[in-house]
């Protein structure tokens, strides 16, 4: 057999279309005329049939129009048809925001799927607050899933602006898109009461709707995020609010508002904020002796900081914080106030517990601990807050007493209850929850022989575990070095312990609960203490600020470090607005 080569010319198709376009422009060899709205377009039957499934069927052997000299297309506009014909003859689609509806209608009608795909990409790329509602309607009408999803996400993200400046656009939104937007997990800045008003106004503008559809729409609202004084009048604002389903949801929201201390364990989607998690930095300051009352919120996506509008109700240091059920709890610590000459002084050890609700930006003092505690640790496990060890001031005054006692907060009835004490007293220790158990590492006792100096070796290496099933404390494998004033977090199924105050080494360690074994890992790029720490939903660990020794002096840091456990890598990701030490951190959904 004779051999041969097959070669391809990329310019052949382009040249072929260019010649067809010249023939069309000159009106030569055209064998069919397309007509719409009184405008005629001479064309070539063969090119149309080879470029469009619609024309392939229209000019097929069994079609009446296969030899017709003129085909009328009254469903299309002349603008849309002209652009699609140009696309078939050249491969270029000329589209703008104004012509897009006509072009997309023509592309769908004539089954030119390549043009439909280009229109969908154009819509996705050009989305903004000025066109997102219109594009959502267009994408829903023409079944463009990618553009529809992108438009709905943009509407949710731009809702505050749309409510203020383009409310009419929202009121003209199609029902599936309105339901999708009200299902969004993030709608920045907008209060839920505004979304309820929007939904009721949309129903008035587009109704009446069948009962099933209005229920589907309104059930996506989160009535638990509406203040009680606003919820009651809104529940009577529209007849659609009176259906059994919606009335029951409003009733449950009112019951939630009245549940008091049990709110954290009464959470449902109805009371979950439409907001992403933030790391809250509570207390601390540029001077370890002068704690501030502000609360910073760190945005994990943008890596920016913002102040909460509501500050701590009181000045604290050596306190603890944790999150439970979407609430922030600030527990114990040393109360501080400004004394003579502006100097901050300690005025006592607190047993107070304050709860912050980010839904309504409000603080509430809940039941106090059984004992005042400072330099203690707390964590959340099995829906309860555990306060462990620490120090307290004896009633008669004198030196602080170190505690072995443990108590936990029961949200069901809002009370603190005693738990079995640790085997011995501890302060300056750390704790974390893993797989339902509470682990406590390191710390110091109140042994009078202990003298706190840098490099001291009497910080404890021991690690205790509160076994939730067995209801007892047991020892697990000890750390390689003793630690005091350190941090411990759980991430990716392991425990990690980080730097403390009086350590000769900067190593961190990882505990495997299955193997009951500690592994030494890479130290951070900056050896510090007094830092804030939080584990993120993605499994990384963030370290905020802290204090380091430099030339014999303590220097407060502005760094924000990220540790990636999977890679055992550290990096600095951003900077704090100002130096910060002795802050306490918790992860919590907080609205922008």
Number of continuous helical runs:
15
CATH class designation of the largest domain: Mainly Beta
Kindly report the average pLDDT value. Answer: 90
Q: What name does CATH use for the topology of the largest domain?
A: Neuraminidase
* Oligomerization: single chain
Question: Strand order across the biggest sheet?
Answer: 6-5-4-34
Classify the secondary structure makeup into a structural class.
alpha+beta
Low-confidence stretches: 448-457
- As a whole number of angstroms, the C-alpha radius of gyration is 33 Å
Q: Give the distance, in angstroms, between the N- and C-terminal Cα atoms.
A: 75 Å
CATH superfamily placement of the largest domain: Kelch-type beta propeller
Instruction: Count the domains.
Output: 2
Shape descriptor reads elongated
> What is the number of E strands?
34
How much of the sequence is in beta strands?
25-35%
Question: Helicity range of the residues?
Answer: 25-40%
- Just name the CATH architecture of the largest domain: 6 Propeller
Query: What summary fits the major beta sheet?
Result: 4 strands, antiparallel
